[in-house]
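Example 4.3 (complexes with small molecules)
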Amino acid sequence: MLAPADPGNLPGMPRIFSGIQPSGELHIGNWLGAVQNWVNLQHSYDCIFCVVDLHAITSKYDHTTLAARTREMATGLLACGIDPARSLLFVQSHVPEHSELQWLLNTVTPIGELERMTQFKDKSQRFESVPAGLLNYPVLMTADILLYRADVVPVGEDQTQHLELAREVARRWNAEFADGEGFFPEPAPLLTEAKRIMGLDGQAKMSKSLNNTIGLLDSPEEIWQKLRPAKTDPARVTRKDPGNPEVCNIYHLHKYFSPPATIAEVAEKCRGAGWGCLDCKRVLADNMIRALAPIRERALALQEQPERVDEILADGAAAARRIASETVREVRDRMGFLPRPRGVAVPS
Ligand code: SF4
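Answer. The structure with iron/sulfur cluster bound is encoded below.
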């Protein structure tokens, strides 16, 4: 751990912003797909990480569990190794400048661009009456990034379109209000290795809503009970039938949790019908349990002291707000608003 310095303000390091929705407990898909990467990025970037609860309400959601899921997600991130002495971690709605900047940026965002977003086209089909929040989701995402004038945003292939919109909005706003000077940097993508972790059903991406996940905090017994019935190569009807590991999700999970010698052994024993699928899953379960044990221990300790998590989030929000309020003050100024009276302005 670094000595507490000034997270969110590490001079000389490019700044990264990234957010995650408060879906509750993290699962191995989130961990392998994003959070492991965040933990590593802390060594080379000035990192700003956010639990994006304002994004979560643009789809149908359970308002009675939103607060608990938000705290749970923050707990999971801390347990995975997000270090508050090195990075900012906070909840999006605790920094109201996200919503304010979104409104201001709405005025330079072409509606046609929003309607062209692939995610909007997909998600809007699930609604009889499409909420405006769903359409404007990418503007909030743009505000999240520009508020901190982030240089880089880690994105998967499915988000490059949103980031391109953020760059376009930054260009338009700069042209209109900053004499093209580049007040807002155009955030560059940091393309991360696409780790598409399939769910235990072997049918779709691992997702809490599909109930095909293994939670990072699952107990050893829960992990085993979930792995036992997981889908494997259908060609392996009996123990004597040879299989093809390449079409089996269990084999792919071994690649993330088992050492190279075991991965080779799995492939060989699968092709040669040298063992049954349950044997194969047992080895995976043991390796997975071992890998996740330290995260689980840290999370259980943090769950015992929710006030500690709240304190970290409060500190994170206060530090984020110092940056965000300065950005919004300057944006308001350049857009010609009457300055806020004393006492209404956010104290810095
Ligand atoms: S032996 Fe392992 S890799 Fe092969 S089909 Fe069964 S679970 Fe999958």
